[in-house]
Write a structure and sequence with these properties.
The chain has helices at about 5-10, 15-40, 45-65, 70-95, 95-100, 110-130, 135-150, 155-165, 170-195, 195-210, 215-230, 235-250, 255-265, 280-285, 290-320, 335-340, 345-355, 360-375, 380, 385-420, 425-435, 440-455, 460-470, 470-475, 480-495, 505-510, 515-525, 530-540, 550-575, 585-600, 605-630. The protein has about 625 residues and is mostly helical. It starts with 5 loop residues before the first helix and ends with a helix.
Length: about 625
C-alpha cells in the first residue's frame, strides 16, 4: 500500500481546496471580463489597464507564495502584498476625477499619493520577480537608480511618471497585455482544449513523417503550427517535444541535434503569422499600425526561418542516411483532415477577421468562441469535452497571461524612466558614435544586446528595452522603421536558443536527455541562417513586403524572396555538408560564399552566388552519376 506524501495531504486540506476554488473563480472572472471588453469595447485606458493589473496581481500572490511551505509570517506577507496590490489600483479608481483634472508635474502630490506610488513600484517589482525571476526587476531598479541618482529629475516627477501617467506602469505595454495578449492566450487555451494540438501533430506526421529525417521535419511543421497559438517557446517544446524528440532519437538523430531541432522549431512560433508572440502586439502599438500589418511584415522572415531549420534537418538526415517513419505507422493525410481537419477553422476565422479589418482582440474572441462548438461537430473530436473543459480553458488562459502581464507592467517602469530622463536620446547618441555612422555596426550591437537581454527575460520586455535604447539609433543610421523593429523583435526571440542561457534549449535537452551545451551549439548551427535573415531584411525591406509601388516592383519582390531562400538553403548545406550529395571541403566553402552573395541584395552578387551554387551542384551531380554507373 503506497504512502501518502505530506504534499498530497496538504493539497487535500480544506484550506488548499478553498484556495484552488478561489483561484479558479478569479481566473475565470478575469477571462470573462476581457472577453466582454473585446466584444463590447473597453472603458477608459487607466480603468481598463488597472482592472487587468488587479486581476493579475491577485492571481500572482495567490499562485506564487513567498514560501510554498512557509509559516504564518510568510502567509501574512503574501496577504499584505495582495492587499497592497488592490490598494495601489483602487487609490487611482477612487480618486480618478482628481487625477484626470490635475495638472501633471505642476500640482503637488499628497502624502497618500506618494505612499501609493512607492507601493506600486515595490509591488510590481515583487510580483514580476515571482513570475519570471530577477532579471527584469533588477533592470527596472537600475533605471530607477539612474533617474534618482544621476539626473535632475525630482522624486515627485518620477512618481508621477511611473505611477500616475499612461507612460509608466499603466502605459501602453500593459495596455497591450490587457487588450491583445489576454485574448490570444485565451484563444490558444481554447484551441488546446479542443484537441488542435493532436491535429497539428497528425497533420505534420502525415505529410513529412515518411521522408528522410521525417520525425525532425514533423517537429518543424508541428511546432510552427502550435507556436502560432502558444506564443511561448518553452511551452511549445513541452507540448511537442515529448512526442517528436523520442521519435527523432528512435530513427537515428543524435540526442543533442534532436533537442536542437525541437527548440529552434518551437522558438520560431513567435514569428509565425497569423498569431505571433506577445511582442508582436507591442510592436503594433509602438508603430501605431494594425496588427494585421505586423503579420504581413512577418510572412517572409518566418518562411526563411523555417526553411533554414527544415533544410538543416534534411541535410543532416541525408548525410547520416536517416530514414523516415514507415508509412504503415503514420496517419493518412486524408483521414487526418476528415476526422480533425475542421479544427483548423478557428485559425482561419482569426485570419479572415484580420484581413477584413476587424480588431485583433475581436478576431481572437471569435476564434476562441468557435473552438469548442467546432470540436463538438464530430464524435472523435467531441470526446471528453464538457462544461468543465470551458472552465479549464478560461482558467488556463488567465494563468498563462500572468508572466506577460507582469513583464509589461514592470517594463512600464523602465519606459517611464527612459522617457522622463531622456536616456533613450543619450543612448542613441552613444550607439551612433560607437558605430561610427556604420549601420552594420549598429545592427551588430543591437543583435548582441537583444540576445543578452533575452537571456534574462522573456521576448516582450527584451524587445521593449531594445526599442527604448537601440532601435532609434538603427533608424537614425538609415534602416526603415518597420525593419528596425522587426530586427529587434527577431533577435529578442533568438535569445531563447542562444547559449549560455537558452530556455527553449534547456527544456528540449531535458526531454532528450542530452548535454545542454551540446544541444545549445547544435541549435545555433541549425538556426545559423536565421541569425542572418534580420540583416537581410534591413538591407532589403522588400523581404518585409515593403514597397512603394506594387505594380512596378512586384517582380523585384519575388526575386528578392527567391534569392534569399536559395541563400538560406546554401548556408544550411555548407554547415551540414550535403546538397545533392556529400559536400567536400571546397564544396562547403563555395556554398558558404554563395550563401553570402545571395543574401546580400544586388543583381551582381546574386549572379555570383548562383554561379558558385551551379559549380557545386554540377560537381555533386556528376559524382553521383559516376557512382551509379560504377555500381550498375
Amino acid at each position: 500500500m503506497s504512502e501518502v506524501t505530506s504534499d498530497e495531504k496538504a493539497a487535500t486540506t480544506p484550506a488548499a481546496r478553498a484556495l484552488k476554488w478561489l483561484v479558479t473563480f478569479i481566473a475565470v472572472a478575469m477571462s470573462l471580463y476581457h472577453m466582454y471588453v473585446a466584444g463590447f469595447g473597453p472603458p477608459e485606458a487607466m480603468i481598463f489597464r488597472g482592472t487587468h493589473l488587479i486581476f493579475a496581481l491577485t492571481l500572482v500572490f495567490l499562485l506564487y507564495p513567498s514560501r510554498p511551505r512557509g509559516g504564518i509570517a510568510w502567509r501574512a506577507l503574501d496577504l499584505v502584498l495582495l492587499v497592497a496590490g488592490w490598494g495601489l489600483v483602487l487609490h487611482i479608481f477612487i480618486n480618478y476625477q482628481t487625477f484626470t483634472n490635475r495638472i501633471i508635474y505642476i500640482d503637488e502630490l499628497s502624502p497618500q499619493d506618494q505612499f501609493w506610488a512607492v507601493v506600486a513600484v515595490l509591488v510590481v517589482l515583487e510580483a514580476t520577480r515571482r513570475v519570471i525571476g530577477w532579471a527584469l526587476p533588477l533592470t527596472a531598479i537600475a533605471f530607477l537608480a539612474y533617474a534618482v541618482g544621476f539626473t535632475h529629475v525630482t522624486m515627485q516627477a518620477l512618481m508621477e511618471q511611473v505611477y500616475f501617467s499612461l507612460e509608466g506602469i499603466f502605459g501602453s505595454t500593459l495596455g497591450v497585455s490587457a487588450s491583445y495578449v489576454m485574448l490570444f492566450v485565451l484563444f490558444g487555451a481554447f484551441m488546446e482544449k479542443s484537441g488542435t494540438g493532436q491535429l497539428f501533430m497528425d497533420f505534420a506526421m502525415s505529410i513529412t513523417g515518411h521522408t528522410a529525417g521525417g520525425p525532425g521535419k514533423v517537429a518543424v511543421v508541428s511546432s510552427s503550427l502550435f507556436g502560432t497559438v502558444s506564443g511561448s517557446a518553452v511551452a511549445n517544446v513541452m507540448v511537442d517535444g515529448p512526442i517528436t524528440i523520442p521519435l527523432m532519437k528512435r530513427t537515428g538523430f543524435r540526442p543533442p541535434f534532436a533537442a536542437a531541432v525541437e527548440a529552434v522549431a518551437s522558438t520560431g512560433g513567435q514569428l509565425m503569422p497569423p498569431i505571433m508572440g506577445a511582442a508582436a502586439f507591442v510592436m503594433a502599438e509602438f508603430l501605431a499600425v494594425p496588427y494585421a500589418q505586423i503579420t504581413i511584415w512577418a510572412i517572409v522572415p518566418s518562411f526563411l526561418y523555417y526553411l533554414a531549420v527544415f533544410s538543416a534537418v534534411h541535410f543532416e538526415a541525408k548525410r547520416y542516411r536517416l530514414a523516415g517513419v514507415p508509412k504503415s505507422e503514420l496517419p493518412a493525410f486524408g483521414s487526418v483532415m476528415l476526422v480533425r481537419g475542421h479544427l483548423f477553422v478557428p485559425i482561419l476565422v482569426v485570419l479572415a477577421g484580420l484581413l477584413l479589418g476587424y480588431s485583433a482582440p475581436l478576431c481572437a474572441l471569435a476564434g476562441a468562441l468557435s473552438c469548442l462548438p467546432l470540436a463538438l461537430l464530430t464524435k472523435t473530436t467531441r470526446a471528453g469535452i464538457t462544461w468543465k473543459t470551458v472552465l479549464e480553458a478560461l482558467e488556463e488562459g488567465a494563468r498563462n497571461t500572468l508572466a506577460v502581464a507582469m513583464a509589461c507592467a514592470c517594463a512600464g517602469i523602465v519606459i517611464g524612466c527612459v522617457t522622463i530622463t531622456g536616456l533613450g536620446i543619450v543612448f542613441t547618441q552613444y550607439v551612433v558614435a560607437l558605430a561610427q555612422e556604420s549601420l552594420i555596426l549598429a545592427l551588430l550591437l543591437t543583435a548582441i544586446a537583444g540576445i543578452i537581454l533575452g537571456m534574462g527575460m522573456p521576448t516582450t520586455p527584451a524587445y521593449i528595452m531594445m526599442v527604448a535604447l537601440l532601435v532609434p539609433a538603427v533608424i537614425k543610421l538609415g534602416a526603415v522603421t518597420p525593419a528596425a523593429h522587426m530586427f529587434a523583435f527577431y533577435f529578442a526571440i533568438l535569445s531563447a536558443i542562444t547559449p549560455p542561457v537558452a530556455l527553449a534549449v534547456y527544456a528540449a535537452a531535458g526531454l532528450a536527455k542530452a548535454n545542454m551545451w551540446a544541444s545549445g551549439f547544435a541549435a545555433m548551427r541549425a538556426a545559423a541562417p536565421a541569425y542572418i535573415v534580420p540583416f537581410m531584411f534591413v538591407y532589403e525591406p522588400t523581404l518585409l513586403l515593403i514597397v512603394k509601388d506594387w505594380n512596378a516592383e512586384w517582380l523585384s519582390v519575388i526575386w528578392a524572396v527567391i534569392s534569399a531562400s536559395i541563400g538560406v538553403v546554401c548556408l544550411a548545406a555548407s554547415l551540414f555538408g550535403w546538397l545533392f550529395g556529400f559536400a567536400l571541403a571546397w564544396h562547403r566553402v563555395l556554398l558558404f560564399v554563395a550563401a553570402l552573395c545571395l543574401i546580400k541584395p544586388g543583381l551582381i552578387t546574386d549572379a555570383a552566388g548562383l554561379a558558385l551554387l551551379a559549380v557545386v551542384a554540377a560537381a555533386q551531380l556528376a559524382t553521383r552519376r559516376a557512382t551509379r554507373e560504377r555500381t550498375a
